[in-house]
Amino acid sequence: MRPAAELLFLLLALPLAAACAYLLVLTLLSRAPPPPPAPVRRTRFDIVVPAHDEAAGIAAVVASLLRIDWPDDRLRVLVVADNCTDATAALARAAGAEVLERTDPLLRGKGHALAFAFADSRAACWADAVVVVDADAEVSPNLLSAFASRLQAGALAVQAHHGVLNAQDSWRTQLMAIALSAFHRVRSRGRERLGLSCGLRGNGWCVSHALLRRRPCAAFSLAEDVEYGIELGLAGVRVHHADEASVNATMVSGEVAARSQRQRWESGRWQLLRTRLGPLLRGVARPGGVLCLDLLVDLLVPPLSWLALGVAVLLLLGLGLALGDGGSASAVAVALACAAALAAHVLRGWQLSGVGRRGLAALARAPGYVLWKLLLMLRQRAGGGAEWVRTQREKP
To answer: Is 99 within 8 Å of 93 (Cβ atoms)?
Structure first.
């Protein structure tokens, strides 16, 4: 029985230790970067807001975008009212946005809405770059300055920090703020220092029209943003990280809405693993394959909750081996090292999230959250399309 337990420990320890070591390296490199030089304020931006039945909040999003510190004649706000059955289009126009109305009962989803808007922007021959902002977000005033400074320095794609707007609403949103801070800020800072791609994170990203002409956005999965970021990496294009700018979105705090949102995120992740694993492996072998290698590792590293569950199992198994006849403490040491690396990553995420002491209390509820996700995964059906199923927004 003991050799079988040792083999199980080894099989579990190797990938977990590799993942935790990878996160520790990025954590150690997560010092705030120096601010970039101020840009020349000449770059023209089309800010695209894909919206499906967002009448309740679309005016606030447009107002936030129109407050950006950038010349008024150098930006346009384009709201894509995609298969809407409410007053999204009318309210967006009244708030000062240009509206593109799209109706297609077959080709549904955020990816199709973005492709529609990008084609319109390209046909207008006006903008130098497009920016994507979700319909429940609030942006920092320096968003376009941060993008322009990098585009003018030669970048083709840029991602701002994607955070949580309503972080203090509940323990669930506090956990999300910590997780997104670790995923988007800690890891992106580390990748930026290493000259890697921080990837696209769905909200608050920018690509130049020169890049769109060369590599059109044709990503239609449930994780269309990550998919397009991978396609850019396969083409040798890295996504730069704009740490000083932020786009914060509303996260759900209720269990029912959170379950629906989490199911879509997990389904999108599995879709990408099935469809992009092979191309990334082949990309690693090509010149400049380090971008593909990091994007591959990023895709393979499980969410923090699954990683924590794996480390807990590893620790229990290590204790069992150590307490057995002739047991060694080395298994426990490996498990504790993984736990320490993961804890450092999570605590750095907490430190940068701004949720304060309440966030530490929320972390105490993480084991229950991990169990909830495990049960959710066991109930979840395999597969799933890319249809746009709108998350129930929080009431103001």
So the answer is: yes
Q: What is the pTM of this model?
A: 0.89
Q: What one-letter code names the amino acid at 285?
A: A
pLDDT of residue 392: 55
CATH placement of domain 45-284: 3.90.550.10
* Residue length of the chain: 396
CATH 3.90.550.10 domain span(s) along the chain: 45-284
Looking at residue 253, its pLDDT comes to 62
CA angle 6, 12, 18 (to 5 degrees): 125
**SS3 labels along the chain:** CHHHHHHHHHHHHHHHHHHHHHHHHHHHCCCCCCCCCCCCCCCCEEEEEEECCCCCCHHHHHHHHHCCCCCHHHEEEEEEEECCCCCHHHHHHHHCCEEEEECCCCCCCHHHHHHHHHHHHHHHCCCCEEEECCCCEEECCCHHHHHHHHHCCCCCEEEEEEEECCCCCCHHHHHHHHHHHHHHHHHHHHHHHHCCCCCCCCCCEEEEHHHHHHCCCCCCCCCHHHHHHHHHHHCCCCCEEEEEEEEEECCCCCHHHHHHHHHHHHHHHHHHHHHHHHHHHHHHCCCCCHHHHHHHHHHHCCCHHHHHHHHHHHHHHHHHHHHCCCCCCHHHHHHHHHHHHHHHHHHHHHHHHCCCHHHHHHHCCHHHHHHHHHHHHHHCCCCCCCCCCCCCCCCC
In the chain (396 residues long), the average pLDDT of successive 10-residue segments reads: 73 93 98 94 97 95 97 97 96 97 91 95 96 96 98 98 92 91 96 96 95 92 90 96 95 58 66 89 91 94 88 88 73 93 96 92 80 65 51 52
Tell me what pLDDT residue 268 has.
Answer: 72
Token duo for residue 135: 């319909």
Distance CA 162, CA 206 (A): 13
The predicted structure's pLDDT at residue 1: 45
Query: Kind of pairing, strands 98-102 and 157-164?
Result: unpaired
Strand-strand pairing, 205-208 and 129-132: antiparallel
pLDDT of 77: 98
